């Protein structure tokens, strides 16, 4: 390692660096990128010297102004994601590591007031760095695991020094607290996939273990403890995380009172956090194996609705638990509990469909796909049943992962919510025949015979049901698109009802002209949306079925990012009397800042688990497609012009800026 | 970026070079880039004035290019690459109404013709001959070595084999035995054969205006085809007077009114200069960049000044520094060739990266693991740049790079 070089040796290197930095700063826009590589190389050499980090910190603002980030993914600081930083800093490509380092120094300069970047307010920079630090706690605390050691490269000491410097600059204050808040915020949306949340909780646990004292006074201590205990020690008999074998041995010696306390303790932790401990799975298996099924309702935390449903379908539920609930698939417990609470088993085809699923072996292709995505802790069949139960329990918990398949994820969510019978039928087609056949305007579309759609690969970072169904749905969606491509109108007019079901409204409204991309009859569009969905304008008619809709997603600066598929679930007054649209966003985290004061809420404004919400007008200002059932409202109330104007302004200041 | 001065010349650049475009963006002349179609998107994106032109097409369309540029009001065209030198000659002969410029350009494009012209003008050149096929090469090799009174079995003195119309080291082979001859492909002929001179090879960059040398730089080769630096060591610079005389001879013999030339010479131990060849375009090995580093002036802007019919002597005097004296240091670069047959990654050697003279590199990561066998001098995989005060230290450092692996 060359960190030991004495400080005089940095002078010639800095001279070179300043020379190439000058070249970059003076370069015309056409040649900018051709100087970036040399600046990064020079910066790398500076970084490796004693005092190099400080020298670069002094030059952070100049580097930004010179255009070191122009044309790169780092060009727009407001759009950067803290979660990507750790990977960039570990990249085997030194230029990426250096670029990320310079980027973080730029944020630090903004925090210190040494640099001002339009679009990067101080609070945002501070928040970003706090998040970066929170997500890299292991590195800061020196808790490097073996894998990190193996991937160490020549810049590793420099990066460690950088994180330490950021910590000094931003302060330890609130980092753990932020992380805890972040985890709670995500968990309140009850995602189906909780792998990343678990790893953040692990980071918190490690940090608390090492810096316990300094954190103990904080108000977040309780929140952190709840998270950690929910995962690693939710009840008395496993409080100190004794290991599954020891826990089961303790259960064998526990009296009825203790077993009862275990049941309610497990359920409390689960419904409190949305996380299911592996001890919980072990507990369920133990009581069913030992013939003590009477603890089941308490262990699932059921209300009278769920309890009634359980009693009606006890053998089915026990069989589902036996197949699906294992230490590696503990989240299925929450799925079963919430599915029972929804009462969907009372719908005649559901129970037989589940029996069919339990009794059918998977095709080799399905087994292979599931094994590739999840490994082989449990069998692919067990994995699928667990995944399905989770989806049926949490229809709004599904996420598209890092895949361009929001359409497919949204469809799965809608079916799980509104048409679980159909979802089970699709699954049965795939597990038996490796294909889905859907009908589009009378013509059969066979997914096995269609070319790939938007997703080039099977999604590996999604839930089990998505892993099997998304590739097929994606192909069918793409084929439907091809078939209507020449109709000169937005394809979703036809695709949405045909893909999802009869209950998607056939009356189609769109805010833009497809040919020009310009706003088209926008005021009428807004007016129609009110008449269709706003209870105070449509004769107080609620949303009957979840309806697909299209929004123009904007970033925190209000700049247009892209078109996105969501579901309108319901429209209702919140507790403070404002009318809100409650909707589902298949994006993995719904809590997004869409700019200009429009921040999507996921909690605290009357949202049910997994819902996102916005005040009606704000939502309307980002809407560009919706469906309507075409029934005439008996008593519609006209929409005031001021309301329309306000919504139009919000749209035209953001995504529709260049579409007027 | 400065505003364009409508009273100064309107320049057409033949060839695509980002460094050159960057220089012109920052200069007060109006300009247009004439380059192949593939560059058009980039040019449009960055608002670079652009005329799409296929230089590989036959010359009978050169008049069309000339008329296009003339209609646009262009005053002069400047070639950036060997392949565009005769295009510029043809275009300028129309723009400047001077047919002689085309003939002159053809002379610069043919290594054999230029050598004969130099010889006729009284410039000393080595022994040379044109070769049409392999047998010509073998005959020349034998004859040169007979002249040197070698016996059969003595190691041959090498001869040099150069493609007629390629830039720099492209198509340049060193031939020592008939086996080397067998490796030459038929499509490399016709070619120029030269005897080997045991001397010090160097290059000169000279900006000329009104038949006068405006700035003369001597580039010292450490090893031909590998490394070069500017300004040269005092040992080579001491020949500056004689070198200047030689360049003035070249100006006479080739009848050069303006522009930029890049000749190569040998100087033997007794100070005799041998002319190698001359090009009418910027040198390879990014010598322009080295000059900018050493002196701080932009060599592409200098190029424009030397071609610009409206540039004044005052402007030129103000632009150029005093050679050697005004240099901030010595800048050099090293062309990297992989030394192994199979490579998988680019790794800058520690001793290079930690050297205070090292500045940066422009090496590309390997695209494929197998290194094609180097025929002739071949093309390097990228350049490594150095800068420092001591020319001898720089020279030794460049030499030392030859023993290092940049590709593993």
Automatic annotation (TrEMBL), chain A:
The lineage of its organism: Bacteria, Pseudomonadati, Pseudomonadota, Alphaproteobacteria, Rhodobacterales. This is Uncharacterized protein. It comes from the Bacteria. It comes from Roseinatronobacter thiooxidans.
From TrEMBL, chain B:
The keyword Nucleotide-binding applies. Keywords: ATP-binding, Nucleotide-binding. GO terms for molecular function: ATP binding; metal ion binding. InterPro entries: ATP-grasp. Coiled coil: none annotated. Gene3D superfamilies: ATP-grasp fold, B domain. Residues 115-308 form the ATP-grasp domain. It comes from the Bacteria. This is ATP-grasp domain-containing protein.
């Amino acid at each position: 390692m060359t960190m030991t070089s004495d400080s005089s040796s940095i002078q010639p290197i800095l001279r070179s660096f300043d020379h190439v930095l000058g070249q970059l700063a003076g370069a015309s826009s056409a040649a900018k990128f051709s100087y970036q590589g040399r600046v990064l190389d020079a910066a790398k050499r500076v970084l490796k010297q004693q005092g190099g980090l400080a020298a670069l910190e002094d030059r952070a603002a100049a580097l930004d102004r010179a255009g070191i980030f122009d044309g790169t993914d780092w060009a727009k600081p407001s759009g950067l994601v803290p979660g990507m930083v750790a990977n960039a800093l570990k990249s085997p490509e030194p230029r990426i590591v250096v670029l990320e380092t310079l980027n973080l120094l730029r944020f630090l300069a903004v925090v210190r007031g040494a640099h001002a970047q339009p679009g990067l307010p101080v609070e945002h920079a501070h928040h970003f760095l706090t998040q970066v630090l929170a997500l890299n706690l292991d590195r800061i605390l020196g808790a490097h695991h073996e894998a990190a050691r193996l991937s160490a490269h020549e810049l590793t000491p420099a990066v460690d020094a950088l994180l330490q410097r950021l910590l000094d600059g931003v302060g330890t204050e609130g980092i753990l607290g932020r992380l805890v808040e972040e985890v709670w915020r995500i968990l309140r949306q009850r995602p189906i996939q909780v792998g990343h949340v678990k790893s953040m909780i692990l980071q918190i646990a490690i940090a608390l273990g090492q810096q316990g004292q300094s954190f103990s006074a904080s108000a977040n201590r309780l929140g952190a403890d709840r998270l950690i205990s929910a995962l690693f020690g939710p009840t008395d008999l496993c409080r100190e995380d004794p290991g599954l074998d020891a826990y089961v041995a303790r259960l064998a010696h526990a009296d009825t009172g203790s077993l009862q306390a275990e049941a309610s303790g497990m359920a409390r932790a689960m419904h409190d956090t949305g996380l299911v401990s592996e001890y919980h799975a072990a507990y369920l298996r133990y009581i069913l194996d030992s013939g003590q099924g009477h603890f089941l309702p308490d262990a699932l935390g059921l209300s009278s609705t769920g309890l009634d449903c359980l009693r009606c379908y006890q053998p089915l539920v026990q069989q589902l638990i036996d197949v699906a609930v294992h230490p590696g698939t503990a989240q299925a417990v929450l799925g079963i509990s919430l599915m029972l609470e929804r009462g969907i088993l009372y719908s005649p085809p559901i129970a037989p469909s589940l029996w069919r699923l339990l009794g059918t072996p998977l095709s080799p292709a399905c087994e292979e796909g599931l094994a590739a995505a999840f490994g082989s802790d449990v069998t692919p069949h067990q994995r699928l049943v667990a995944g399905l139960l989770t989806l049926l329990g949490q229809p709004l918990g599904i996420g598209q992962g890092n895949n361009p398949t929001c359409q497919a994820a949204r469809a799965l969510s809608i079916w799980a919510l509104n048409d679980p019978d159909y979802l089970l039928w699709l699954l049965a087609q795939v597990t038996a025949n490796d294909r889905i056949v859907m009908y589009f305007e009378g013509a059969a579309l066979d997914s096995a015979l269609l070319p790939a759609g938007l997703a080039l690969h099977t999604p590996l970072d999604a839930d089990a049901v998505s892993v099997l169904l998304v590739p097929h749905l994606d192909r069918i969606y793409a084929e439907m698109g091809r078939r209507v491509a020449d109709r000169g109108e937005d394809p979703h007019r036809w695709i949405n009802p045909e893909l999802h079901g009869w209950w998607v409204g056939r009356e189609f409204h769109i805010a833009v002209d497809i040919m020009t991309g310009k706003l088209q009859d926008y005021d009428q569009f807004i007016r129609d949306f009110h008449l269709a969905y706003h209870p105070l304008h449509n004769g107080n008619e609620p949303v009957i079925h979840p309806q697909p809709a299209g929004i123009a997603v904007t970033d925190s600066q209000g700049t247009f990012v892209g078109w996105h598929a969501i579901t309108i679930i319901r429209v209702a007054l919140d507790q403070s009397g404002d009318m809100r649209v409650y909707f589902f966003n298949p994006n993995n985290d719904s809590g997004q800042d869409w700019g200009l004061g429009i921040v999507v809420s996921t909690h605290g404004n009357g949202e049910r688990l997994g819902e996102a919400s916005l005040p009606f007008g704000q939502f309307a200002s980002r809407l560009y497609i919706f469906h309507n059932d075409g029934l005439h409202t008996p008593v519609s109330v006209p929409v005031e012009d001021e309301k329309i104007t306000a919504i139009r302004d919000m749209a035209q200041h953001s995504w529709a800026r260049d579409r007027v | 970026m400065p505003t364009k001065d409508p009273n100064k010349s309107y320049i057409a650049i033949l060839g695509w070079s980002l460094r050159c475009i960057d220089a012109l963006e920052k200069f007060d002349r109006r300009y247009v880039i004439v380059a192949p179609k593939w560059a058009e998107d980039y040019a449009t994106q960055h608002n670079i004035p652009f005329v799409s032109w296929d230089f590989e097409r036959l010359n009978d369309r050169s008049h069309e290019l000339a008329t296009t540029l003339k209609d646009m009001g262009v005053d002069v065209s400047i070639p950036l690459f060997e392949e565009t030198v005769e295009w510029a000659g043809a275009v300028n002969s129309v723009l400047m109404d001077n047919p002689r410029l085309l003939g002159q350009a053809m002379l610069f494009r043919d290594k054999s013709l230029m050598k004969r012209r130099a010889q006729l003008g009284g410039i000393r050149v080595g022994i040379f001959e044109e070769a049409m096929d392999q047998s010509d090469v073998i005959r020349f090799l034998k004859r040169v070595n007979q002249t040197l009174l070698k016996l059969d079995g003595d190691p041959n003195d090498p001869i040099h084999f150069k493609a007629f119309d390629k830039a720099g080291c492209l198509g340049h082979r060193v031939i020592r035995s008939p086996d080397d001859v067998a490796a030459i492909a038929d499509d490399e002929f016709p070619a120029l054969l030269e005897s080997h001179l045991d001397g010090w090879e160097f290059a000169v960059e000279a900006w000329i205006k009104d038949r006068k040398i405006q700035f003369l730089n001597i580039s010292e080769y450490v090893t031909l085809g590998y490394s070069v630096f500017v300004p040269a060591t005092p040992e080579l610079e001491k020949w500056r007077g004689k070198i200047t005389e030689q360049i003035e001879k070249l100006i006479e013999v080739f009848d050069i009114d303006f522009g930029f030339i890049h000749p190569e010479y040998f100087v033997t131990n007794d100070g005799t200069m041998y002319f190698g060849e001359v090009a009418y375009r910027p040198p390879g090995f990014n010598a322009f960049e080295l000059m900018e580093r050493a002196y701080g002036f932009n060599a592409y802007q200098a190029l424009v000044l030397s071609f610009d019919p409206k540039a004044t002597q005052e402007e030129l005097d103000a632009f150029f520094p005093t050679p050697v004296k005004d240099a901030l240091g010595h800048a050099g670069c090293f062309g990297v060739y992989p030394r192994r047959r199979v490579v998988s990654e680019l790794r800058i050697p520690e001793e290079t990266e930690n050297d205070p003279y090292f500045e940066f590199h422009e090496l590309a990561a390997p695209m494929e693991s197998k290194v094609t066998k180097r025929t002739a001098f071949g093309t390097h995989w990228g350049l490594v740049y150095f800068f420092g005060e001591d020319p001898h230290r720089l020279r030794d450092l460049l030499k030392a790079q030859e023993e290092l692996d940049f590709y593993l």
